[in-house]
Amino acid sequence: MSTVSGTARRALVRTGRILRFAGYFVVRLAQANLVVAWEILTPGSRLIPGVVRVPLRAVTDIEVAAVALAVNLIPGTLTLRVTRQPAELSVHGMYAADPVAFRHEVTELEWRLLAALRPADHPEGNAADGDPAGGDPAGGGGGPRWRWRWR
C-alpha cells in the first residue's frame, strides 16, 4: 500500500516539475523571440555577442544533450561546443554584454531542465525548490568558479 502511494507521489512530483519547466521554457522562448524580432524591425543594432563557458551539473549523456538542445532552441543562443571532462558547454549569445548574467541564464535553464528530467529522489538533488548549482550561479558563495572568455 505504501509503495503505491510512494510511486504515485513521485509521479505527481515529477509531473509538476515537467509542467513547471514547460511553462518556464515557453515564457523564455516567447521573450527571446520578441527580443530578436524587435532587433530585426528597429534600426540600429543592440547586439553585444559573446561566448561563455558554462560548467554543467548534468551527468548523463542524455542530460547534457537535452541542455545543449534547449539552449539551441532559444533564439539568440547557440551551443558551440560540448565537453564531457569537465562537463561544460561553450555558448554563444547575441546579447551577452554581461557574461555573468548570461551564464546565469543558461545555468538556470539547465537546473530547471534537470529538475524536470531527474526522478524526484535523484541522489544529486534537483535544485527544483532551491538554489541552482548549490551556490550562487554567478560564481560567488559556495558554487563552482565560472570561467568565461570573449572570442
Q: Layout of helices and strands, plus pairs?
A:
Layout lengths: L1 H40 L8 E6 L5 H13 L3 E8 L2 E7 L5 H19 L34
Antiparallel strand pairs: 1-3, 2-3
Helix pairs in contact: 1-3, 2-3
Structural commentary:
- The chain is α+β, with helices and mostly antiparallel strands.
- It has three helices and three strands.
- The chain has a three-stranded antiparallel β-sheet with strand order 1-3-2, covered by helices on one side.
- The chain is flat and about 60 Å long.
Compact overview of the structure:
This protein is an alpha+beta fold and 151 residues long. It has helices at 2-41, 61-73, 99-117, and strands at residues 50-55, 77-84, 87-93.
Low-confidence stretches: 128-151
Main pleated sheet: 3 strands, antiparallel
Mean pLDDT rating: 82
User: Taking strands numbered 1, 2, ... along the chain, how are they ordered across the largest sheet?
Assistant: 1-3-2
CA(first)-CA(last) distance? 58 Å
**Class from secondary-structure proportions:** alpha+beta
* Helix coverage percent: 40-55%
Radius of gyration: 17 Å
Number of helices, where a helix is a run of at least 4 consecutive DSSP H or I residues: 3
- Overall, the morphology is flat
Q: What is the ordering of alpha helices and beta strands?
A: HEHEEH
Number of β-strand runs: 3
Portion of residues in beta strands equals 5-15%
Top keywords for this entry?
151 residues, three-stranded antiparallel sheet, 3 helices, flat, disordered C terminus
